[in-house]
Amino acid sequence: MKATIYDVAKEAGVSIATVSHVINGKGKISRERREEITRIMVRMGYKPSMIASALTGKKTYALGLLVPDISNPFFAEIARAVEDEGQRHGYSVFICSTDNKDEKVEHYAELLRQKNVDGVIIGTGMKELTVLDPLLNGGVPIAFLSREFPTAKVPSVVVDDYAGGAAAAEHLIALGHRRLAVLAEEESVSSSRERVRGFRQTLAAAGIALDQTDVRMSGLKESMDRALELLGRADRPTAIFCCNDMLAIGALRAAKELGLRIPRDCSIVGFDDTVLASVTDPPLTTVAQPIDRMGQAAVQVLVRLIEQPEARSERIVLPPALSIRQSSAAWAGNR
Questions:
Q1: Which residue in 25, 176, 299, 309 is deepest, having the highest Cβ count within 10 Å?
Q2: 279-292 residue pLDDT tens
């Protein structure tokens, strides 16, 4: 039998009105007491009627999360972190995969507005900010996660992508690599642009050129083909920096297809440090993102915005960390 508001009130030792105030974010109730009652609601499985709340203009205790592809381990781990933190605050989460396509972003933005969600976390790439108009014009609070849009005054939680790209470059330079290439995501993905920028500028500071032909844009499905193009050249790179771990796995597959030994014939460095990075063959050197902290921070920022609409926009930048495994080594020419 489903728990009711009466059951929650009895368990918490408060009135029904107090539980209602907690649900709707009203009343003079301490933060500690609100969190205690919210935990009781979660434990008892009590869910206020979303339809009834929407019809009365009250909170629905639902959030939206837009990601490019939930099958990508990075976004699967992000989604879990968001879901867990959302639940801690009493929110359910709708997860939508957009494939980084503006038309899908716009479709889901309108759908979530119609569902009267209390806020939306944007973790997807987009070419035009206008695709979020259904949310922005509808007064729905939003926060960016692992993405940014310079012209938007919207709170964001990101890793220092530039520093991550720079760290990958420094690692490969220290190993003696001078002929390098990059597998990047689509231009609409701001995090990938920053990683490439950090990588390129660090190489330039060391006197190493990275031509535009050395940078290949790729979706996940085409990553092996783009890596084959790079590794099949007469002047093939001795190292490839991949802007996420899934692209790096495509590069590992391409190397195997060509009979190349990793890292002896080519070093490969990824970005994310998902669960897959430690089980590839060989295990993947990658720039680690603090995935759990990112998901938690995005929910916390959005909840603050929901509760305090006039609050100043926050930009939280978390540091990356290079995780060195067996897919990178000194260039054979230096041995």
A1: 299
A2: 999 999 999 999 99
Say what the pTM is. 0.78
In this structure, are residues 99 and 154 in contact, taking their beta carbons and an 8 Å threshold? no
- Residue that has been written with the tokens 């926009």 in this structure: 313
Q: Contact, 318 vs 290, CB < 8 A?
A: yes
Output the domain CATH number for residue 68. Answer: 3.40.50.2300
Cβ-contact 192, 180 below 8 angstroms:
no
pLDDT tens digits, 227-281: 999 999 999 999 999 999 999 999 999 999 999 999 999 999 999 999 999 999 9
Pairing of strands 315-318, 239-242: unpaired
189 plus 283 within the same structural domain? yes
Residues 6+ apart with CB under 8 A from 173: 202, 203, 206, 208
Which residues neighbour 323 within 8 Å (Cβ) at sequence distance 6 or greater? 273, 277, 285, 286, 287, 288
Average pLDDT over residues 208-229: 93
| Average pLDDT rounded to a whole number, residues 281-305 | 96
What are the angstrom distances between the C-alpha of 332 and each of 67, 175, 240, 241, 328? Answer: 39, 10, 15, 18, 11
301 and 275 together in one domain: no
Rounded CA-CA distance 145/61 in Å is: 20
Between CA 8 and CA 57, with CA 119 as vertex, the angle to 5 degrees is: 65
